[in-house]
Write a structure and sequence with these properties.
1520 residues; alpha+beta; 5-stranded mixed beta sheet; 4-stranded antiparallel beta sheet; 35 strands; elongated
Length: 1520
C-alpha cells in the first residue's frame, strides 16, 4: 500500500477533536430568529447592499411569456372574465383560470403544452392542490386538484410521471376527472383553498367560515365526499338552510388567505379587515379544528405597546394610506423556536408573531433542538418587528441614494401591494408612485453570518459597517481568520442583517413560489439532516422537496456544499420570471472566472473572513460545491491558488504574547481584553477553511448513530433482539458524501505531493522534525516533540482547549518554520481524517447492500446494543469503532465464505481493499483466505486433504497473527482436530499484542501491566476453551462458529486424552512463561492433574511452590538429621485451603520423579498445616494419611533418592524417626478426640442435659455442671480438630483433665517416661486407671483394662508397669467386692490379668506375688493372704502348662489337658529339670504358707491340696 494512504488512528483521533470543536462552535453560533431580531433593534443599520462591482446577488435566470392559448382565452373574454392564477411547486406547474377553464403548464421550461380543463359549468372561484390520501384512489393519482365554483366543489385526480431515463420526474401531468367526488357548495363562494401535508382540505368561504372537505372510498351508505363547516355553531347552520344568503344583512368579513404550519399543526386565516385567526389541528394534525386566538388589530397592537421604542435605522414617514397586511407566512422551526408567524405590511414592515404566551430568546441554537410541540397555541401576539426596506436600494451603497429633485411633500415610503416570504427570503412588489414598479428581494447577509463564526480583526472600530468593508489588518497586509478577532460588541455581531436587491419588473406581481429541489437531491438532503435536532425538523408527512427547501433558511455558508442555489418563480401580469440567488461561493466563482482585479478578491476575503473565503476556495478547488454546471479547470486552479496565497489567507503566527488581545476561550467564544502570559500558535485562514469545510461535510454524520432499528416490534430491546437493524442513511446519501469527502482529500493529497503552499515551505525540514508528514515523535528533538504536542494548535491531548487566562506559564515562541510545520502536520491529520471518513462511508454502503440485519443476526445482545449506539465519530476515530467495523467485515466475509457462501474471498475482498483499506488491511485479506481454506477443509471427506488445508490455513494465519479472530478460527481448527494451530495462534497473537513484554515487567505502571495481562489472558483463554471442550465441560458452540458435520465427530475417551496431552505438550513447549502458569492453573481447575504432572515443564515446581507459597526445597547430599529437623521446624504455618491442593500436587510430582525426601517434607507440611481462615480445616484422619504417606516416602528415600554413604542413613533415619513420632502423637490425638466425642455423646443422651440444653439455664447445680462439662468437651474437640498438638499438650490439656488414664499411660510409655525415683506418677496413673475401671465395671473391667494396657507397655522397666501396685490393688478390690457380694470374682481373674499384661511372662508375676507375700506389713489380713496364695497357685499352674506346651509344641490349652491325665515316663522326661524344681520348690513353700494361715481348714484345704497336687505331678513320673 502506498505510504501516502496510510492512516494513523492517533492522528485521526486528534483531527476528530478539531472537527468536534468546530462543529460545536458552529452550533453555538447559530441563533434563533427572535434573538437575531432582538439584537438588530440596537444595530445602526439592519440592511446592507451588495457591492456594485461584484456579480449580482440576485439575477433573472429565465423569463417566459404566458401561454398563447391562455392569452387568447383571456382576450376573448374581453378582459372582464373571472381570472385566477398561481403556481403548484410540487408538480412544477403554473396554472390560471379564465371563467370555467383551467390551464396548466410548466413554469421552469416551456414544452409547448398547456392543457385546458373545463369540466366545470360555473366560473372557477378558487383552486387548490392537495396530496391524495393513501388507499382511496389508484396509485397513479398522487395529488388532487380542488376546484370551487359558486355552485359546487369538485375533486380532480392529478397523475404525474417522469421520463424513462429519470432525467425529468415532472415530464407528464394528466388530470383525471372524479365525478363521484363532486358536491354542492350550498351557496357559499369559496375564496381560498389550502391543505395539510397529510391530505386534509380546508376551504375559506366568503361568509367568513372555514370548511373542511372530507372524501373516502364511500363504502356502504356513506357519501364519498362531504363538506363540513368548522367555525359555525348550530344556529348558523340552521339559518343557512332556512334563510337564503341574499336576505342576510349582517356585515361579513370574508377570509382572503389561509396558511398551514404543518410542523406545529396550526392553521392561520387572514380576513379582509386584517383580522388574523389561529386554529389548532389537534395532535399530529389529525384532530378537530379549534379556534384558540383571534386578533383584530395586529398592527395597532405593536404600535400601542412598542411605539416609543423605534428601531435604529427606521424611518418615520407620513403615511397617507391606512397600513394593511399584505401576506402572512408561517415560520419553520428551522428559523425560530419561539416565533411562529410573519406578517408583511403594505408599508414594508414585518411583524413577527407568536402563539405562545412566553417567548424564549435565552437559548442558543445547538444540540438541544426544537420541540415544536412543547407548547400548545393559546394566543397571538406581536413579539418583534422589522423596519421596512429603504427606498431606492440597488442603485449604490446603502444610504448613498440621491434624493435631489424630490418635493418635500413626496411620500418616501414604499408601497407594497404583494409579498412572499419563504425560508428567510422576502419578495416585495413595490409600486411606489415615485419609482417604477420593481421587486425588492430581501435575504440574510451571509457576510454578516461569517463574522460571527470566524475571527476577523478590526483596528480601532467598535461596530460593524454596513457592508463589512471597513476591516483592517493589524501591522500586516495579510489577514488570518484564525488569528484575528471581531472588535464589536456581542449584540451587534448577533444582529440580523439582511441584504436588499432590486429588480425592475413590468406589470404587477401576482404570485411567487419556490422552485423546489429535484426529488433525488431533496431525498438526499432530507436523509442527511432529518435527524439533526438542531435543525429543528419535524417532518409531519410533507414531501421531501418541501422539507429540504427549509434548509435555505440556515444560510448559504453552511449549506452550499449540498444545497443548490435558491430559485423562485414569479408570476406577473406580463409573464413569468425565474430568479436565482447567487451564493457567496457562486460570486467567488464568477470573480475567478472573470479575472477580477486582485483588490476585488481581497475585498471578498475581507468581507467574508479569511476562513470562510478559504473554505469556499477549497470547495471550488476540490469541486465539492453543489453547482448547476461543472466547475472548469481554470476556476479550480485559481481557487487552489487563492487557498494557498498567504496574502489572502494569512500565515500561521503567534498571538497573545503578553499583549491585551482577544483570546478564544475553551467554550469557543471570545474572552475580550484578557492579559495572556504566553504566545499561542494560531493557524492561517487556510487551516480554518479546511476545518470549516470538513466539519460542515461531516455535520450530518458526526455525532449521530450509524445504525437504527426499524420495524413494528416496538422499541428496540437488545435482550430480545427485536427490530430490524439498518443503516441510518440511505446508500445514495452516503455515496454523495463519500464522493465529496474523497474529492476534498484527493485535493489535499495532490497539494501535498506537489509541495504547494506551506507544504513547499516545510519540505526541507526533515532534519528538524523527523518526517514532517509522517513523523511519529519518537525520533524528534526536544523542539520537535514540543511541536508535535501542539500540532493541533490550541488543542490539548484530551481534546480540551489550552491557553486562555487560566494557563499562565510562559512558553517559548516558535519560529516561522516551526509554525508552518505545525500547520502542515495539522492539515495532514485532517486529510487522514477525511480519508478515514470516506472509507467508513464506503464500508457502510457495502454493508447496506448486503443487508445489515442479516449480517448481525449472530451478534449477541451486547454487540447489537453497541452497534446501534455507535456514532460515526466513534466509528472513524475510536478503537471501539474499529473493533465493531472488523466484526461487521467478519460477518460480511462469513456471508461469502460460509457453508452457504455466495462467492469467494476474492469477490468481496477486492472491493474492501480498494474502498476501505484502513478497515480491511492486507493482513485481513490473508486471514480470510485462511478462513476460506478452513471452510473447504470442513466439507471435505479426505483426511489427508483436510490436514493439508488446515496446515495451509495455519501457515497463512501465522504470518498475520494480529488479524486473527481467535474465537472463530480456533473453533474451526478444533473442529478439524488441528490443535497445533489452536495452541500456537493464540500465543502468537499474545506476543503481537504485548511485544514489549509489559505483562512480565513489574517495574512499569500497574495499569499498563494489567492491560497487557488482560490482553494476553484473552488469548490464553482460547487454548483453555479447547481443553474444556475436550474435557466435556462446555457446549459444542463454545466459540460461536457452526459445527461442520464432516469435520466434527464424537470423540471417545482415548482420543480425548490423546488430544488433551497434545495440547499440554504444545503449550509446555512454548517459551511463554505466563502462559505456562495459565495453563497449569487451568489443568488443575479442570481436574487434569495427571496430565499436568506427566507433561509439566521445568517451571511446574516453581509454579506449585509460588502458588502455594512453599519455599524451594532442594535435596542435598550433605543432609543430616539435625538439618532435616531444623528445616521442618517452621511447619504448621497457615496455608489457605485453596492452596493446599498445590502442595498435594507438588508432593505427587516429587513422588512421580522419585524425590521421596522432598515428597515427605511436603506431606509433613500438609499434615501440619493450619487454615488461614479457620474454615475448611483438614480432618485428623486426613492428617494421618498425610503423615502415613510421608513415613512411606521416608522409608523409600534410602533406595530412591540417590544418596550414598553414612549421610544417607543418618538423614533418612532422622527424618523417619521424626515422621513416625509425629504419626504416633497424631494417633494419640485421634484417640483422645474419639474418647471426648464419646463422652459428649453420652452426656447429650443424659436426660438432664438433653432436656435443659446447653444454652438454657439448668434447674439445679448438677445439671449445670453437666452442661458446663459438655460445653468444655465440645470446645476441646474443636481444638483438637484444628491442628496438630504436641504430646505435652495432649497429656496436660486433654488426657489428664478428662481422666483419660489409659491414654495417659500409653503416652508415658511412648515418651519413655522414667519419672521420679519411686515412679509415683506412673503408679498414681495406674491406680486412677484401675479405680476408674472398677467404678465402671468392677474387677472384671479392671482386669480387662489391665490386659489391654499392660500388653501395650510391656516389656518395660518397672516404672511403666508397676506389677506390685497393680497386683495388690486388684487383689484387695477383688476380696472386698467378693466379701461384700457386689461382684463374683474368680480366683484366677486377677492372676490371669497380670499374666496377660506381661504377655505371658510368668516369673515377673510370680516374683511380684512372692514379694508381697513375704512382706507381712503389706498383707496383714489372713483372707487377703489366702487370696494371694490362690492367685499364686494359678500362676504356678500356668507356668507348668506353658512349659509343657513349649516342649510339646502345643497350645497351653492342650497342655492343660495332658497335665490333667496320665502320660508315659518318656513324656515326663522332656520337662526341664531346673524349671520343674523351681515350680516344685515354690509349691512346697506355699503349702507351708497356707498351713500357717490362722484360718479354718475348710477355707484353706482347697488351696493346700492344689499346691500339693501340683508338686506331686511334677515329682511323680506316672501320675499327676
Amino acid at each position: 500500500m502506498p505510504r501516502e494512504n496510510d492512516i494513523v488512528l492517533r492522528d485521526v483521533t486528534n483531527a476528530g477533536l478539531v472537527v468536534s470543536d468546530r462543529i460545536g462552535r458552529d452550533l453555538t453560533a447559530q441563533l434563533d430568529l427572535e434573538e437575531a431580531l432582538e439584537a438588530s433593534r440596537y444595530a445602526s443599520h439592519p440592511y446592507s447592499t451588495h457591492p456594485r462591482e461584484w456579480p449580482p446577488l440576485v439575477e433573472v435566470a429565465n423569463t417566459w411569456e404566458l401561454p398563447p392559448v391562455l392569452i387568447e382565452r383571456y382576450n376573448a373574454a374581453g378582459g372582464e372574465g373571472n381570472a385566477l392564477c398561481g403556481i403548484f411547486s410540487e408538480i412544477r406547474r403554473a396554472w390560471a383560470t379564465v371563467d370555467n377553464s383551467l390551464f396548466l403548464w410548466r413554469f421552469d421550461k416551456w414544452d409547448g403544452q398547456c392543457p385546458e380543463y373545463n369540466g366545470e359549468e360555473q366560473a372557477i372561484c378558487a383552486v387548490g392542490l392537495v396530496k391524495a390520501k393513501p388507499s382511496i384512489f389508484v396509485e397513479a393519482i398522487q395529488y388532487l386538484l380542488v376546484l370551487a365554483t359558486p355552485v359546487e366543489l369538485s375533486l380532480v385526480g392529478v397523475c404525474c410521471s417522469g421520463r424513462d431515463d429519470g432525467s425529468d420526474p415532472y415530464a407528464e401531468v394528466s388530470l383525471q376527472p372524479l365525478p363521484e367526488y363532486t358536491i354542492s357548495s350550498d351557496g357559499v363562494t369559496m375564496t381560498c383553498i389550502t391543505s395539510t401535508d397529510k391530505g386534509r382540505i380546508f376551504l375559506a368561504g366568503r361568509d367568513g367560515h372555514i370548511y373542511e372537505l372530507h372524501y373516502t372510498t364511500g363504502a356502504g351508505w356513506q357519501k364519498r365526499c362531504r363538506k363540513v363547516c368548522l367555525t359555525a355553531g348550530l344556529g348558523s347552520v340552521i339559518s343557512r338552510w332556512v334563510v337564503p344568503n341574499v336576505f342576510k344583512f349582517g356585515a361579513v368579513d370574508p377570509i382572503i388567505e389561509m396558511v398551514v404550519d404543518n410542523e406545529r399543526h396550526i392553521l392561520y386565516a387572514r380576513t379582509e379587515d386584517m383580522k388574523i385567526q389561529v386554529f389548532t389541528l389537534g395532535p399530529y394534525g389529525e384532530g378537530p379544528l379549534k379556534n384558540v386566538a383571534e386578533e383584530k388589530n395586529v398592527i395597532n397592537q405593536w404600535d400601542a405597546h412598542y411605539g416609543g421604542r423605534q428601531s435604529a435605522g427606521s424611518r418615520v414617514a407620513t403615511r397617507q394610506a391606512k397600513t394593511s397586511i399584505v401576506c402572512i407566512s408561517p415560520l419553520s422551526t428551522l428559523e425560530s423556536k419561539w416565533l411562529h408567524l410573519v406578517a408583511v405590511l403594505s408599508d414594508g414592515r414585518r411583524l413577527y408573531l407568536s402563539t405562545s404566551p412566553s417567548s424564549g430568546g435565552s437559548g442558543l441554537g445547538g444540540l438541544g433542538g426544537f420541540n415544536s410541540n412543547g407548547q400548545r397555541p393559546s394566543c397571538l401576539k406581536v413579539v418583534m418587528t422589522r423596519p421596512s426596506t429603504p427606498l431606492g436600494v440597488g442603485g449604490g451603497a446603502f444610504g448613498s441614494i440621491s434624493l435631489a429633485g424630490r418635493s418635500q411633500n413626496e411620500d418616501l415610503s414604499v408601497k407594497i401591494e404583494s409579498a412572499y416570504y419563504s425560508s428567510g427570503t422576502l419578495v416585495l412588489s413595490d409600486s411606489s408612485p415615485s419609482t417604477t414598479s420593481s421587486l425588492l428581494i430581501v435575504n440574510r447577509d451571509s457576510s454578516t453570518l461569517s463574522s460571527s463564526s470566524t475571527n476577523i480583526a478590526t483596528s480601532g472600530s467598535s461596530s460593524l459597517s454596513t457592508s463589512l468593508t471597513n476591516i483592517a489588518t493589524s501591522g500586516s497586509s495579510s489577514l488570518s481568520s484564525s488569528s484575528t478577532n471581531i472588535a464589536t460588541s456581542g449584540r451587534s455581531s448577533r444582529a440580523l442583517r439582511e441584504s436588499v436587491s432590486s429588480l425592475p419588473v413590468e406589470g404587477r406581481m401576482l404570485f411567487v413560489a419556490d422552485i423546489l429541489p429535484l426529488p433525488n437531491t431533496a431525498a438526499t438532503l432530507l436523509s442527511l439532516y432529518l435527524q439533526l435536532e438542531f435543525f429543528g425538523f419535524n417532518n409531519s408527512g410533507e414531501s421531501c422537496e418541501k422539507a429540504s427547501a427549509k434548509l435555505w433558511a440556515k444560510g448559504d455558508l453552511s449549506m452550499h456544499h449540498v444545497l443548490p442555489r435558491k430559485r423562485i418563480v414569479i408570476f406577473s401580469t406580463v409573464g413569468m420570471m425565474e430568479v436565482v440567488f447567487n451564493r457567496p461561493v457562486d460570486i467567488l466563482r464568477r470573480l475567478l472566472e472573470s479575472n477580477s482585479p486582485r483588490p476585488m478578491l481581497e475585498d471578498f476575503f475581507n468581507r467574508f473572513g479569511a476562513g470562510e473565503a478559504a473554505a469556499m476556495c477549497l470547495m471550488l478547488a476540490a469541486r465539492i460545491v453543489h453547482t448547476d454546471n461543472m466547475i472548469s479547470n481554470v476556476v479550480a486552479e485559481k481557487a487552489a491558488e487563492a487557498f494557498e496565497d498567504p496574502r489572502l489567507v494569512g500565515i500561521p503566527q503567534l498571538e497573545g504574547s503578553g499583549a491585551l488581545s482577544n483570546t478564544r476561550t475553551a467554550a469557543g467564544g471570545f474572552s475580550m481584553g484578557q492579559v495572556v502570559q504566553e504566545a499561542e500558535p494560531v493557524f492561517s485562514g487556510a487551516h480554518e477553511g479546511l476545518c470549516l469545510c470538513s466539519s460542515r461535510l461531516l455535520l450530518p454524520l458526526w455525532e449521530l448513530p450509524i445504525m437504527v432499528t426499524k420495524g413494528d416490534l416496538g422499541p428496540f430491546d437488545p435482550m430480545l433482539g427485536n427490530g430490524v437493524v439498518v443503516c441510518r442513511l440511505p446508500i445514495d446519501a452516503m455515496h454523495a458524501l463519500e464522493d465529496k469527502t474523497r474529492s476534498l482529500e484527493k485535493f489535499l493529497r495532490s497539494r501535498r505531493n506537489q509541495r504547494r503552499g506551506l507544504y513547499g515551505c516545510v519540505a526541507g525540514l526533515g532534519d528538524l522534525t523527523g518526517s514532517i508528514l509522517y513523523g511519529t515523535g519518537s525520533d524528534l528533538s526536544a523542539g520537535g516533540q514540543s511541536m508535535i504536542r501542539n500540532l493541533l494548535g490550541s488543542y490539548s491531548r484530551n481534546g480540551s482547549l489550552e491557553g486562555g487566562a487560566s494557563n499562565k506559564r510562559q512558553r517559548l515562541p516558535y519560529s516561522p518554520a516551526e509554525l508552518a510545520a505545525m500547520e502542515v502536520r495539522a492539515m495532514e491529520c485532517i486529510r487522514q481524517l477525511l480519508l478515514r471518513c470516506a472509507e467508513a462511508l464506503f464500508l457502510l454502503q457495502l454493508l447496506s447492500q448486503h443487508h445489515v440485519t442479516r449480517l448481525v443476526q449472530h451478534f449477541d445482545a451486547n454487540s447489537r446494543q453497541a452497534l446501534v449506539q455507535l456514532t460515526f465519530h466513534q466509528l472513524v476515530c475510536s478503537e471501539e469503532g474499529d473493533r465493531i467495523a472488523t466484526r461487521l467485515i467478519s460477518s460480511l466475509m462469513e456471508y461469502y465464505t460460509g457453508p452457504d457462501g455466495r462467492g469467494t474471498v476474492d469477490d468481496i475482498s477486492t472491493r474492501l481493499r480498494d474502498g476501505c483499506p484502513s478497515y480491511f488491511k492486507e493482513s485481513d485479506y490473508k486471514f480470510y483466505l485462511a478462513v476460506e481454506c478452513l471452510e473447504r477443509a470442513a466439507v471435505t471427506s479426505d483426511t489427508e486433504e483436510r490436514e493439508n488445508l488446515a496446515r495451509e490455513a495455519f501457515n497463512s494465519l501465522s504470518k498475520v497473527p494480529e488479524s486473527v479472530d481467535l474465537q472463530t478460527v480456533c473453533k474451526r481448527f478444533s473442529d478439524l482436530r488441528f490443535y497445533e494451530a489452536v495452541v500456537h495462534l493464540p500465543l502468537q497473537k499474545a506476543q503481537v499484542l504485548d511485544p514489549a513484554g509489559d505483562a512480565f515487567n513489574e517495574q512499569i505502571d500497574a495499569g499498563i501491566r494489567e492491560h497487557a495481562l488482560f490482553q494476553r489472558e484473552q488469548c490464553y483463554e482460547i487454548v483453555i476453551s479447547a481443553l474444556r471442550a475436550l474435557k466435556g465441560e462446555t457446549s459444542q458452540k463454545e466459540f460461536g462458529s457452526p459445527i461442520r458435520p464432516l469435520a466434527q465427530s464424537v470423540l471417545d475417551l482415548v482420543s480425548r486424552k490423546k488430544y488433551i496431552c497434545q495440547i499440554v505438550q504444545l503449550g509446555v513447549q512454548s517459551p511463554d512463561r505466563l502462559f505456562h502458569k495459565y495453563l497449569y492453573q487451568a489443568l488443575i481447575d479442570l481436574g487434569l492433574e495427571n496430565e499436568l504432572l506427566e507433561y509439566g515443564g521445568p517451571d511446574l515446581v516453581p509454579f506449585l511452590q509460588s502458588t502455594g507459597h512453599e519455599p524451594m526445597l532442594e535435596a542435598q547430599a550433605g543432609y543430616t538429621a539435625a538439618s532435616a529437623t531444623s528445616r521442618l521446624g517452621h511447619s504448621g504455618a497457615r496455608i489457605p485451603s485453596n492452596q493446599a491442593k498445590y502442595f498435594e500436587l507438588l508432593a505427587r510430582y516429587y513422588v512421580l520423579k522419585r524425590q521421596h525426601v522432598l515428597a515427605a517434607h511436603i506431606l509433613l507440611r500438609l499434615a501440619e498445616r493450619r487454615s488461614a481462615d479457620g474454615e475448611d480445616v483438614p480432618s485428623l484422619e486426613k492428617r494421618r494419611q498425610y503423615l502415613s504417606n510421608a513415613v512411606l516416602q521416608a522409608k523409600s528415600a534410602s533406595t530412591s533418592d540417590g544418596l550414598v554413604g553414612p549421610s544417607r542413613s543418618t538423614f533418612d533415619d532422622g527424618l523417619l524417626d521424626l515422621l513416625e513420632g509425629k504419626l504416633s502423637v497424631l494417633r494419640f490425638q485421634i484417640k483422645i478426640k474419639e474418647e471426648l466425642e464419646a463422652m459428649a455423646l453420652k452426656l447429650e443422651s443424659c436426660p438432664s442435659t438433653s432436656e435443659s440444653g446447653i444454652s438454657d439455664l439448668p434447674p439445679d447445680g448438677s445439671q449445670a455442671a453437666d452442661v458446663n462439662i459438655l460445653r468444655s468437651i465440645r470446645d476441646k474437640v474443636k481444638e483438637l480438630s484444628l491442628d496438630l498438638k504436641s504430646i505435652t499438650q495432649l497429656y496436660n490439656e486433654y488426657a489428664v483433665p478428662f481422666e483419660l488414664w489409659e491414654i495417659c499411660l500409653e503416652m508415658l510409655y511412648f515418651a519413655n517416661y522414667s519419672g521420679d525415683a519411686d515412679s509415683s506418677i506412673v503408679r498414681e496413673t495406674w491406680a486412677r486407671l484401675i479405680d476408674q475401671a472398677l467404678s465402671r465395671g468392677g474387677v472384671a473391667e479392671a482386669c480387662a483394662v489391665l490386659k489391654r494396657v499392660g500388653s501395650h507397655v510391656y516389656p518395660g522397666d518397672g516404672a511403666v508397669l508397676p506389677l506390685d501396685t497393680l497386683c495388690l490393688h486388684l487383689e484387695k478390690a477383688a476380696l472386698e467386692r467378693l466379701a461384700s457380694g457386689v461382684e463374683s470374682v474368680g480366683d484366677e481373674d486377677v492372676a490371669r490379668a497380670l499374666l496377660a499384661a506381661c504377655k505371658g511372662a510368668i516369673e515377673p508375676v510370680l516374683n511380684t506375688y512372692d514379694q508381697l507375700l513375704s512382706n507381712g506389713a503389706i498383707l496383714p489380713s489372713p483372707n487377703l493372704r489366702l487370696r494371694f496364695l490362690r492367685s499364686v497357685l494359678v500362676v504356678l499352674r500356668e507356668w507348668a502348662m506353658s512349659l509343657f506346651a513349649q516342649r510339646m509344641n502345643i497350645s497351653t490349652t492342650g497342655a492343660s489337658l495332658i497335665l490333667g491325665a496320665s502320660f508315659s515316663p518318656e513324656q515326663a522326661t522332656i520337662f526341664n529339670q531346673g524349671v520343674r524344681d523351681k515350680i516344685t520348690s515354690a509349691a512346697n513353700r506355699y503349702m507351708t504358707e497356707v498351713r500357717r494361715l490362722p484360718l479354718p481348714q475348710s477355707q484353706t484345704e482347697a488351696v493346700y491340696r492344689g499346691f500339693r497336687e501340683l508338686e506331686e505331678s511334677l515329682l511323680s513320673p506316672l501320675s499327676f
